[in-house]
Amino acid sequence: MKKILLTLFTVILFCMTALTVNAAEPEGNLTIQLKIDSPVMLVNSEEKNIDENGTAPVIVNSRTLLPVRAIVEEIGGSAEWDSKTKTVDLQSGDDNIKLEIGSLTAYLNNEPYTLDVPPAIIGGRTMLPIRFIAESFGLEVDWDSEEQTITLTKKADQPTESDTSTEVSTEASTESVTAEETPSESANHILVAYFSATGNTKGVAEKIADTAGADIYEITPEIPYTADDLDYNTDCRSNKEQNDDNARPEISGTVENMEQYDTVFIGYPIWWGQAPKIMYTFMESYDFSGKTIIPFCTSGSSPIGSSAENMQSLAEGADWLEGQRFSSAASTDDITDWINSLDIK
Prior knowledge:
Elements lengths: L1 H23 L5 E6 L4 E4 L2 E4 L8 E3 L2 E4 L2 H6 L3 E5 L4 E6 L2 E6 L4 E4 L2 E4 L5 E3 L2 E5 H7 L3 E5 L4 E6 L35 E5 L5 H13 L2 E4 L1 E2 L15 H6 L8 E2 L10 E7 L7 H7 L8 E7 L20 E2 L3 E3 L5 H11 L3
Parallel strand pairs: 15-16, 15-19, 19-20, 20-21, 20-22
Antiparallel strand pairs: 1-2, 1-14, 2-3, 4-5, 5-12, 6-7, 7-8, 8-9, 9-10, 11-12, 13-14, 17-18
Helix pairs in contact: 4-7
């Protein structure tokens, strides 16, 4: 009898232990934890070297740099280094990232992004900005300033949602939707107006409009931006506009019934830390007095910063709420949580 009870107790203890382990880590999730100055990372609690040379993450200008090959391979991706051009090519699923040593311009699916700190070679190792890479590949990034740790999480039920569109918009008017073109049984009072040169901001804007039940309007330039216009490493059109305080690129089309909206989301990519100058054109084209304006932006790693504040003077009498920055991989859950926090009436 005692032997039977002992066996039964052992089985029960084993089952409880298994349940505890499964509760601690959802099945299929991948969690990678890194610590500043430590050459070891934890992959689902298993210790692994970041690289074979004992390289550890470092902080440069408040951004974490580290060798990323092992991390990219853990999520099923690949990393290629070209020593001649000093460029890195990262691939995960359908998403591709290209970076160059010393350059603040990174490319996600051929769309240029401005980094806060450039990739660098430190101690003979190629060190890359982990937040931009992780978020671009759809991972959640959590920074613990007290413990100096970075936790990357890839959820099994939340695959990468990066917008892989790389084509520059060439339609002057068909993509823009005015309120008159948006069928509804009653006039909507929320509008999402956005500018997207290559598609990433468009993806976020559409999720915001769906979640908020809003009308949507694309701010389309009269002269569309080409790939050469967005080549930040040259004296391109976008660089010239951003450096000219008086630049106001013309917009094709208008919001015909702006007066019906009392809440307006305005979205844009971050260009050199600021909103593109076409957003200034848009803000100066309408009377926003009495309206609530909610800015949002997309970027590789740059925060929304002063980009929204610098447009506030163009909309006197409006109530500006605090803006939000999203990566191109922002999930519907992320956007829903943000919109719920706004308590829009």
